[in-house]
């Protein structure tokens, strides 16, 4: 079986300050190694501060603000976790609009850990199977999703994982899903 290629695909990574570094870096590396072009979309220009759990990590340069980003210009979206990152995103109307646009267009989305908070705010999980960090279970079920405690769940273009330990399975699944659509 040939390796999945994402050659010619543009992938948006939507993240803000407080993103869990490994949940940004590893999926980005996976899609770039498969040939995709990646852009970091965020709430403000400049850079974002990542974290390694509760410790400061690396800062990453923002390519485009979410207010200026057009979901139509991307083939897929990744929402990394961290606790603060999705909390900032879900309170920003432009970020919520951007996320919802991927679902409205039927484009694939990968989300890990606390990332689904933004999906709840965008009202795009109703009737879907999803996983996340365990503390989001009630939020997701209240929003109409079926929550599963599995390393990776794929449901009609939505790929979700629970935590950093699930990254190998998550990275494989997003590359496969992004390459199949």
If you had to describe this structure to a student in words, what would you say it looks like?
32% of the residues lie in helices and 27% in strands. The protein is α/β, with parallel strands linked by helices. Strands 6-3-1-7-8-12-11 form a 7-stranded mixed sheet, sandwiched between helices. α1 packs across α6. The longest helix is centred in the last third of the chain and has 14 residues. The mean pLDDT is 97.
Task: Kindly summarize this structure in a few lines.
This protein is of the alpha/beta class and 181 residues long. 32% of the residues lie in helices and 27% in strands. A hairpin with a 2-residue loop joins strand 11 and strand 12.
- Taking pLDDT < 50 over at least 5 consecutive residues as the criterion, the unreliable ranges are none
The CATH architecture can be named as 3-Layer(aba) Sandwich
Main-sheet strand order equals 6-3-1-7-8-12-11
As for the CATH topology, it is Rossmann fold
CATH class: Alpha Beta
The overall number of domains is 1
Q: How would you classify the helix and strand content by structural class? A: alpha/beta
CATH superfamily: Class I glutamine amidotransferase (GATase) domain
Number of strand elements: 12
Largest sheet: 7 strands, mixed
Oligomeric status: single chain
Helix amount: 25-40%
SSE series: EEHEEEEEHHEHEHEEEH
Mean pLDDT: 97
Q: Which range does the strand content fall in?
A: 25-35%
Domain DJ-1/PfpI: 9-177
Family: Belongs to the peptidase C56 family.
Enzyme class: hydrolase
Protein name: Protease I
């Amino acid at each position: 079986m040939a390796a999945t290629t994402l050659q010619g695909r543009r992938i948006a990574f939507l993240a803000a300050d407080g993103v869990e570094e490994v949940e940004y870096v590893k999926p980005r590396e996976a899609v770039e190694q498969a040939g995709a072009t990646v852009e970091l979309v965020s709430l403000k220009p400049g850079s974002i501060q990542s974290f390694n759990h509760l410790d400061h990590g690396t800062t990453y340069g923002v390519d485009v603000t979410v207010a200026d980003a057009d979901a139509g210009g991307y083939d897929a979206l990744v929402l990394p976790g961290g606790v603060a990152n999705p909390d900032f995103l879900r309170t920003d109307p432009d970020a919520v609009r951007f996320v919802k646009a991927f679902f409205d267009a039927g484009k694939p989305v990968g989300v890990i850990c606390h990332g689904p908070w933004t999906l709840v705010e965008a009202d795009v999980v109703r009737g879907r199977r999803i996983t996340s960090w365990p503390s989001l279970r009630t939020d997701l079920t209240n929003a109409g999703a079926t929550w599963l405690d599995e390393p990776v769940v794929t449901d009609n273009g939505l790929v979700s994982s629970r935590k950093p330990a699930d990254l190998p399975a998550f990275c494989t699944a997003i590359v496969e899903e992004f390459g199949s659509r």
